[in-house]
Write a structure and sequence with these properties.
The chain is built from twelve helices and twelve strands. Strands 3-2-1-4-5-6 form a six-stranded parallel beta sheet, with helices on both faces. The chain starts with a helix and ends in a 6-residue tail after the last helix. It has two domains: 205 residues, inorganic pyrophosphatase (n-terminal core) (Alpha-Beta Complex); 118 residues, Diaminopimelate Epimerase, Chain A, domain 1, CATH 3.10.310. The protein is globular. Helices cover 37% and strands 18% of the residues. The longest helix is centred in the N-terminal third of the chain and has 16 residues. With 337 residues, it is of the alpha/beta class.
């Protein structure tokens, strides 16, 4: 929960109508966009003028979220994006805690902003750029934290179906449909409140998980074909090269959730998913685990990344083959299960 000092400062910052910029991390997922839109609809009710500025575009499977059409895509219109940041009287950063997570294009513009920042995030080791920092790794999603932010400010009565729909989306996606260990009784009670407000949980689940495009299914099929299982290490991994992604006509969002399939295998508690991005010159890596194996620590130590104990990311500037060989080599030196 927020400290009493943080609550008071946030209340003071929101006491008068302001132009507010809401920022989430690059390559937004359901928690990033859901938390930003949930906060956006809340701030509108308080009389503010909020604008969500996304570093780059969001995936198509999130385009149905209420208010998604209002999101300004920074990389599409950098000039106007900088103007919106310069005019902002308050900036919220959601679902990240280092400005570098907005990417090389947006980060310099954010660092020039003179307005105060409010950070709401559940990742480890937050930076100290914010006037108000609501950072807690015990939460399963930033959307759940936005719910607490709203209620601790004393505005629970402003929660409605629209806000609930946005926040439910981030909770269900970041919790792995409520199966990760950070899902608590409080999480379920919050979701129950949203359903009582009219949020259609069944429809949201279908929009998120039962609305696959041919390219998304082909992406998954290729990743499953490439999967390697290493029972001696209780681990697995899969990969997709740039050529394979091009062949299946991959679009943004098609790889969402692919990494989780590696954990569905009996006896596997650690899995990795390697994706080649030749435009950025990197191999992007997603890590997932079960139980006590800390993939956040693993990603920080070996692949310049981080995240949560059971879900983290990293990157490599080496080739796909060299990156995978490095991953395999690390397994001999760590205790997984």
């Amino acid at each position: 929960m927020m400290t009493s000092e943080a609550i008071l400062t946030a209340q003071q910052l929101l006491a008068e109508p302001k132009k507010i910029a809401i920022i989430h991390h690059r390559n937004p997922d359901g928690d990033a966009l859901g938390s930003a839109l949930g906060l956006y609809h809340f701030l509108l009710q308080l009389g503010h003028k909020p604008t969500i500025i996304s570093p780059n575009d969001y995936p198509d499977f999130l385009a149905w979220l209420p208010g998604a059409e209002t999101v300004h895509i920074f990389e599409r219109d950098i000039h106007n994006g900088i103007k919106l940041l310069d005019e902002a009287e308050l900036v919220f950063t959601l679902d990240f805690n280092h400005l570098s997570r907005t990417g090389d294009t947006m980060e310099p513009a954010l660092r020039r902003v003179q307005a105060p920042f409010i950070m709401i995030d559940h990742h480890q080791k937050p930076d100290d750029y914010a006037t108000v920092t609501f950072s807690d790794t015990s939460y399963g999603s930033t959307c759940e934290m936005v719910y607490h932010f709203i209620t601790q400010l004393g505005h629970k009565e402003l929660l409605n179906k629209t806000i609930g729909t946005c926040l439910y989306t981030g909770i269900v996606t970041d919790s792995g449909s409520f199966r990760f260990h950070t899902t608590t009784g409080t999480t379920h009670r919050i979701v129950a409140e949203f359903i009582d407000l009219g949020v259609d949980n069944s429809a949201i689940h279908s929009l998120l998980f039962d609305n696959s495009s041919p390219s998304r299914l082909k992406t998954l099929a290729k990743a499953l074909e490439n999967m390697v299982i290493m029972p001696e290490h209780s681990a697995s991994y899969t990969y997709l090269t740039q050529e394979e992604l091009t062949t299946v006509n991959h679009v943004k969002g098609d790889t969402e959730g692919v990494v989780n399939y590696g954990l569905s295998i009996k006896g596997i508690v650690f899995t990795a998913f390697f994706t080649e991005n030749k435009d950025e010159g990197i191999i992007k890596i997603s890590f997932r685990s079960k139980g006590d194996f800390d993939v956040n620590q693993y990603a920080r130590e070996h692949f310049s990344g981080g995240g949560h104990i059971n879900a983290a990311g990293g990157k490599s500037t080496e080739s796909m083959e060299a990156t995978i060989q490095k991953f395999i080599a690390t397994l001999a030196d760590i205790k997984i299960a």
